[in-house]
Design goal:
This protein is of the alpha+beta class. 47% of the residues lie in helices and 13% in strands. It starts with 11 loop residues before the first helix and ends in an 8-residue tail after the last helix. 30% of the residues are buried.
Length: 264
């Protein structure tokens, strides 16, 4: 049987591998545009949209409009971001979910709720054991940001695909994947212990804005930064860089020596 040399080969296996790569990218990086995904996978815009459409049809990802604050201006349709749904996350491999859930239920039955809380605290302590606590307190934004970066690195090493980003007068720790999300849905003590440990390490109160266990696209922890009082204006009425949002962000990024993801 002859094969039309001009026809593009159709491979279900190849399509499956590509869609797995798309899902893996969204797990690691969080919501992304078709252009971001195509650039990472070396695919054309049309090629990557075919796979995105298939994943949307299967309920594994969803599309949402990019915030106008961060969207690129130009002609054409507004840019969209794609992110995993609970169905998509449910298809990821969680080999020990059933075993871990059963073990946690047994622990609660035998030793009570406090034993579960103690286990959750021990677990996050082990993950961030190499992160030095911020001894400067919340009055030093640079120290808070550096500690947040270190927490993100430790979480990534433990499989959480975490990073930090500046948002307004604060910094957010974003965990784009949770290897224990299914268990944490039943045992929120795991998330509560993380939040408490972050507070201890950062030396300032933090707020959990979203969790994958609750169906959100990422676990997001907001860390407020102290805002320095503006300096008195000089005779020529010039403004110091600390009064400028862009100058302030640049100073904070430079002080930590780390490149952070822009909020978008």
């Amino acid at each position: 049987m002859s094969v039309d040399a001009g026809a593009a080969p159709v491979s279900v296996s190849h399509d499956g591998q590509t869609r797995t790569a798309v899902v893996a990218f969204l797990v690691e990086h969080g919501p992304a545009t078709a252009g971001d995904i195509g650039e990472e996978l070396g695919m054309s815009a049309a090629g990557v949209r075919r796979h995105l459409d298939a994943l949307i049809a299967g309920g594994e990802i969803r599309a949402s409009a990019v915030s106008t604050r961060y969207a690129r201006r130009g002609r054409g349709r507004p840019a969209k971001q794609f992110q995993l749904t609970s169905i998509g996350r449910g298809k990821l491999h969680h080999a020990y979910d059933d075993l871990a859930g059963a073990a946690m239920r047994r622990l609660r039955d035998v030793a009570g709720d406090q034993a579960v809380r103690d286990f959750a605290a021990d677990r996050i302590d082990a993950i961030v054991s190499d992160v030095p606590g911020n001894t400067a307190g919340d009055s030093d934004p640079d120290a808070v940001i550096e500690t947040a970066d270190r927490i993100a690195v430790a979480l990534t090493a433990a499989g959480f695909s975490a990073n930090t980003r500046r948002v307004g007068a604060g910094v957010q720790i974003c965990q784009h994947h949770c290897p224990v999300a299914h268990v944490a849905t039943e045992f929120p003590e795991l998330c509560e212990a993380e939040t408490a440990r972050f507070t201890d390490l950062l030396g300032t109160h933090v707020q959990r804005l979203a969790t994958i266990a609750n169906g959100d696209c990422a676990c997001t922890t907001h860390v407020p930064l102290a805002v320095a009082s503006p300096a008195e204006p000089a005779a020529d009425d010039s403004r110091s860089t600390i009064d400028s949002p862009s100058g302030s962000d640049a100073q904070l990024a430079s002080a930590t020596g780390t490149k952070r993801e822009d909020s978008r």
